[in-house]
Sequence to fold (307 residues):
Amino acid sequence: MKEIYLDCMYEVCPIPLIKASKELKKMEIGDLLIMKTDHNCSITNVIEWVEKQKLKMDYVEIDEGEWEIYIEKT
Amino acid sequence: MSTSRIEELKKRREMERDKHRVDVRRPNTQIKYALILLGILLFLGVLFARRDELYLWIWPIGILLGFSMERSRFCFAASLRNPFTLGTTGLLKAVIVSLMISSVGFFVLQQLSIGGETYLVEELPGMIRPFGIHTVIGGLMFGLGMVVAGGCASGTLMRVGEGFTLQIFVLGGFIMGAVVAGLWHEDFWRNLLFHGGWTVYLPDFVGFYPALFLQLAILGILYILVNQIKLKV
Fold:
């Protein structure tokens, strides 16, 4: 039941998701991943990818143009 | 989508953020910026319209295009990169659908512009240009560049407008490339690479309506293929 924080600020499109997928591979089932990004494309990418991988996620706009994405490894 | 544990985490993160936040965010803080932007847009619109009446049409289309691209997070770079890097094809399907729609649109535009019996392919709307080795070289360069820079022309412009800092530098690169290669050295590149190309215009070979049908059929088949394929990345 760990929580992992991944800072993806100022990274362009595929990098945040590639980082997240590497991190998710190392994680145990039930662990939570927190990603912070300012690239709006990342969110669409992550949503589509997470659905494909059958994981659970949600996101919040924490500031103008900055988002936190929460993914649970299931 | 979400689970109870994610909801719990969301609430806790929000509380932690509120503790550290110096200024409490007021609702609708962006109204002020929206009004300033609207003023600039109207000023530019009047300026453009005085130059050429055609801009009266291009101006609102450009604004709406930018708005819908920002809202839908549409990205040509991602549409062609994601199938290889992530195995997702949603954006690629959207691009294929948009190509189908614009095929019909250009068909109508070209029909309207032809009028008589004969036509010059180079003068039709839609920038029909010869293809050759320069198409391949340019495609490779553009493709590599857009994946490294994280966006093609429209995507970069859209994200610069949104405030994504990194791509302001990408925009600088765009402007340099367009000025140096496109404006100052245009003849050099044209003479080096552009000769010996072949202009292909489908209606020349099969007629207008069959060409439209053929193009839509090919795009439809591509859509079905992309939809069927299971990419494992």
Summary: The mean pLDDT of chain B is 83. Chain B touches chain A at residues 1-3, 5-7, 9-10, 13-14, 17, 29-30, 70, 73, 75, 77-78, 81-82, 85-88, 90-91, 147, 149-151, 155, 159, 162-167 (CB under 8 Å). The radius of gyration of chain B is 23 Å. The first helix of chain B runs from residue 4 to 20.
